[in-house]
Design brief:
With about 575 residues, this protein is of the alpha+beta class. The protein has helices at about 5-15, 20-30, 45, 65, 75-85, 85-95, 110-120, 120-130, 135-140, 165-170, 175-180, 200-210, 215-230, 235-245, 250-290, 300-305, 340-355, 380-400, and strands at about 145-150, 155-160, 325, 330-335, 365, 375, 405-415, 435-440, 445, 450-455, 485-490, 495-500, 505-510, 510-515, 515-525. Pfam families: Ank.
């Protein structure tokens, strides 16, 4: 459903005096198509379907299934009406059987009974409470742990385990807290602990610790706390609450500890989820996909093919071991022959076409924010990437640099008329080492060069951006990036030649003027370091300040734990 259709639907619901019949909702949610008409058979089915229900589902393992917050799903009609704070629409949808217990499929798991209390939408909430849900259902309503990417800043983690009442209380919405306390189905929330084992009163006391005594926010929290005290039969409620408020330093230390625990919970759950999807995707690949160039999937054959020269001879390409430092920390070296690069280009596109032509198979396909193909390591191309790693490490050894280990790769495609070409910015990568292997360049290629700028430490400072989901590893960012006057190199790619540089190196792709070009971009860690957490053992680059699989903080030289990282792993 488009945003305009959504607006029309909500307008109908919020303006009509009587609840519309099922045909009205059907026309909005399931408009007639040419050919076969697909409509839900009843109002209840329509109401509890996500808005994308009438559209093709994303492939299993696609970017939207690995990162559900990117799924084109706006939620159920009731949820959207609550988010839009449309109480009349909420009342009509509840009357027609909409489910207030609905949970959005994205990682945040938001729903009507969470959103309204948190935002203070009292009128909408009153209608939700008219729904005949049970006390047992209410007791199960708890928020989920999830991660929020805040633009250029570090990710923010939201704790799960909070009841709707606790959401309202922590936001100072006393009238809503009172509504819940008057509803026998919701009264258990008054004592329901959060995910750290804190009762609602203690949560409020902890929140008050960081606020000035006379601040409006603290007074609002105190008002909600006093409502809870009255409900729980606590005499001298204000004295009781004030006695629970910790000192400022104690509260700060406890908050940091909770954040560490929360981050670890979220990252462990995210790692397990990704691994489950990865294994499922690779199993489906083995069952259903027939490669065009099968040698790319064989660890032995792919290395032999890549290191051949472009002559008829099968002699290994010795030049791949002779890197040239074309700028400070930037090395170029022949890595693969042209026939090999052509096979890589063809195979990845063959795979993409097969997956798009067979969405019912659920094969993994990861489309990046810029339309390119990401997470190739999860699409069966790991043998190819390990061959690139082997060649790059030969070159690194020759240049006196440490070996690296690949962990992520994507394919870039630049051609005239591509809208994303105009959005390329000077940036640094979220990798220790980046390997850029040109696998395609048309005969008429003009432009699409890569500019390199003064290195980190000599100008500005790079901070990686979590603006895109970290699962895709496609975010990059800059704080005060260098300008064109600080460009030190303009590099023209050649098929089969790789460029290797530190992830902290400032660079950008220049506009393409004619033809097309494609590169296999591989991100790598340095060395064989692993996380120091006892039960983790995931790979961890020496430069990372925390493990992105479990959240373990690397100790600093004085023996204490490091602060939150400047550059996220």
């Amino acid at each position: 459903m488009s945003s305009s259709q959504l607006g029309d639907l909500l307008s109908v619901l919020n303006d009509q005096e009587e609840a519309p019949d099922s045909s009205v909702l059907q026309d909005f949610l399931f408009p007639p198509f040419s050919g076969e008409v697909a409509r839900a058979p009843s109002p209840c089915n329509i109401i509890d379907k996500e808005f994308y229900a009438a559209s093709p589902k994303p492939q299993q393992g696609s970017s939207s299934s690995l990162s559900t917050e990117k799924a084109e799903c706006m939620g159920s009609p009731l949820y959207i009406a609550c988010v839009s704070n449309l109480p009349i629409a909420v009342a009509k949808l509840i009357h027609m059987g909409a489910n207030p217990m609905y949970r959005h499929p994205a990682p945040h798991g938001d729903g009507p009974l969470f959103h309204c209390p948190e935002q203070g939408y009292e009128a909408c909430l009153k209608h939700l409470l008219q729904s005949p849900f049970s006390k047992e259902e209410a007791e199960q309503m708890r928020t989920k742990d999830f991660k929020i990417a805040l633009g250029q800043a570090l990710p923010h983690f939201e704790a799960g385990g909070r009841s709707p009442l606790l959401l309202a209380a922590c936001n100072g919405h006393a009238p809503i807290v009172e509504l819940f306390l008057q509803d026998t189905r919701c009264q258990a929330w008054a004592e329901a602990p959060d995910s750290f084992g804190r009762a609602p009163l203690q949560v409020l006391a902890d929140e008050m610790a960081s606020l000035a005594v006379e601040s409006v926010k603290r007074k609002e929290l105190l008002a909600t706390a006093l409502l809870l005290c009255a409900h729980l039969g606590i005499d001298e409620g204000e004295k009781e609450v004030n006695g629970m408020i910790p000192g400022a330093e104690e509260a700060k230390t406890a908050s940091i500890t909770r954040n560490k625990i929360l981050r670890s919970r979220v990252l462990k759950a995210e790692t397990a989820r990704k691994q489950e999807l990865r294994l499922k995707g690779l199993s489906l690949l083995e069952q259903h996909y027939a490669p065009r160039h099968s040698f790319l999937y064989d660890p032995t054959e792919v290395c032999a093919a890549m290191f051949k020269t472009d002559t008829e001879s099968s002699t290994e390409n010795e030049s791949a071991q002779s890197p040239a430092e074309i700028s400070d920390g930037v090395f170029a070296f022949p890595l693969a022959n042209s026939a090999f690069c052509k096979a890589v280009w063809e195979e990845i596109h063959h795979y993409e076409k097969f997956v798009r032509d067979h969405p019912d198979l659920g094969l993994p396909l990861h489309e990046r924010h810029d339309g390119n193909l990401g997470n190739l390591q999860d699409c069966g191309f790991l043998p190819l990437l390990e061959a690139v790693e082997k060649g790059a490490n030969r070159a690194a050894e020759k240049a006196g640099r440490p070996p690296c280990r690949v962990y992520h790769a994507f394919l870039t495609r630049n051609f005239v008329g591509r809208e994303e070409n105009a959005k390329f910015k000077v940036h640094c990568d979220r990798s220790a080492v980046t390997i850029n292997l040109c696998v395609h360049a048309s005969d008429d290629l003009q432009g699409s060069t890569v500019g390199f700028f003064l290195p980190k430490g000599r100008r500005g400072r790079a901070v990686a951006s979590p603006k895109k989901d970290e699962e895709n590893d496609d975010g990059s960012a800059q704080i005060d990036p260098p300008g064109e006057e600080e460009r030190v190199l303009t590099y023209a790619h050649k098929v089969g030649t790789a460029v290797m540089h530190d992830g902290s190196c400032w660079h950008k792709t220049d506009p393409i003027e004619r033809g097309s070009r494609g590169s296999l971009i591989v991100w790598a860690r340095l060395g064989d370091g692993v996380c120091g957490e006892r039960d983790c053992g995931e790979p961890m680059d020496p430069s990372w300040k925390f493990c992105k699989a479990c959240g373990w903080l690397r100790p600093v030289s004085n023996g204490s734990e490091s602060a939150l990282p400047v550059v996220p792993a």
